[in-house]
Write a structure and sequence with these properties.
383 residues, Amino acid/polyamine transporter I
């Protein structure tokens, strides 16, 4: 009898992308879908899943065809120059700060749900989340690497738990909605939730030389899993809460489902928030240490204080945060990746195997879409 052994490197690489992409942004998707209507939300979800999968495949080709062990920023520097490198570094830093700020807001809300407190108490709890995470970030590199797999498992279990608990209470009429005037609301939240560009080099290393040709397949599989999870989660929540869907999803569900859900969901949520806050903080700390040449203390202070100062200044609206970060900084990184792919193809570096044949026209269309997203977000923010 032949025993079929699982392709462990392939499964690990898929898990890496899922773990690097799935995060707090998904909690804002139901509210965004409820605002635009689920039909429009799902249409934008489908398009952005396709666009970002293409971008991930473009970056995979850059990583595969370029000699050396390049990361996202070093790849951009190689093909677009030093100015683009610093632009990418600042975009990444701002994106992580924005994500940490969003985790502060969500973490405070989850602690409020657990304790039954509201209002000012949730603001205090947000500081508790930030201070706890700051303490862990100081020396948390080894700890962060050990808990990453566990965090992914907990987060996936949370989403499955929410989906299963919600489906019996869904109303079909809440799902088939359409609000064309608010079509742009899901865009930034979706881009924030779907972006995980920096993980592709790690996926390549996990696959190794023997399985390197499977990188594209691993990306497609991971993005399909992430996209399906997001769609099911968003539809399930909106199907239960409808127009009363809240920006952080779970607090609105807890009011309706109550009981065990009201305890388990926020408990799993706060564990996940603290853990991913730590992982993001360590990643940003390392950027400041190794790319900006700061000391450990300086990098730690810069990493941990900026989200707290932003929160203290009144930047506390969850959807506004993730929408802005996704549209501006996620869009900027997407443009830089597309341009890097374009330059790489024109230099004729594709020697190991044939390049994924994305035509120049498609690349420019993607650049135009993400540029338009940045412009619209800036206009809406200023007005």
């Amino acid at each position: 009898m032949n025993v079929v052994h699982p392709n462990v490197p392939f499964l690990r690489s898929v898990g890496l992308m899922i773990g690097a992409t799935v995060g707090v942004g998904v909690f804002g998707l139901p509210w965004a879908f409820a605002q635009s209507g689920v039909v429009i939300g799902l249409l934008e979800w489908l398009l952005l899943c396709a666009f970002l999968t293409i971008l991930q495949l473009m970056f995979a080709e850059v990583v595969t065809q370029t000699p050396g062990r390049l990361r996202l920023v070093s790849s951009i520097q190689m093909y677009l120059g030093d100015s683009a490198k610093w632009l990418a570094l600042m975009a990444m830093a701002c994106a992580v700060w924005g994500a940490m700020l969003a985790y502060m807001v969500v973490g405070g809300q989850f602690l409020s749900l657990l304790t039954g407190s509201v209002g000012a108490s949730s603001l205090s709890y947000a500081y508790v989340v930030a201070l706890l995470a700051a303490g862990l970030i100081w020396g948390g590199l080894r700890f962060a690497s050990r808990i990453e797999v566990a965090v992914v498992v907990i987060l996936l279990f949370l989403f499955v738990f929410v989906i299963v608990a919600s489906f019996p209470h869904m109303s079909v009429s809440s799902v088939f909605t359409l609000v064309p005037s608010k079509w742009f609301v899901p865009y930034g939240v979706l881009l924030f939730a779907l972006s995980g560009f920096g993980i592709v080099p790690d996926m390549k290393e996990v696959l190794g030389v023997k399985h390197k040709r499977e990188l594209a397949c691993a990306i497609v599989v991971a993005m399909c899993v992430i996209g399906l999870l997001y769609a099911l989660f968003s539809v399930a929540v909106v199907g239960v809460t409808g127009t009363a869907t809240t920006p952080i999803a779970l607090d609105g569900l807890a009011t309706i489902l109550g009981g065990t859900f009201g305890l388990v969901a926020p408990l799993l949520g706060i564990v996940t928030v603290l853990s991913i806050y730590l992982i993001l903080g360590v990643e940003l700390l390392n950027i400041f240490k190794f790319d900006f040449r700061l000391s450990h203390r300086q990098a730690w202070l810069l990493t941990t204080l900026v989200p707290i100062l932003l929160f203290s200044s009144g930047v506390r609206e969850f959807i506004g945060i993730v929408g802005f970060v996704g549209s501006i900084f996620g869009g900027l990184l997407a443009i830089l990746i597309a341009l890097s792919y374009l330059v790489m193809r024109r230099r004729g570096l594709c020697k190991q195997h044939h390049c994924i044949n994305f035509p120049d026209g498609l690349t420019w269309i993607l650049i135009g879409i993400f540029t338009l997203g940045i412009v619209i977000e800036i206009i809406q923010t200023l007005t």
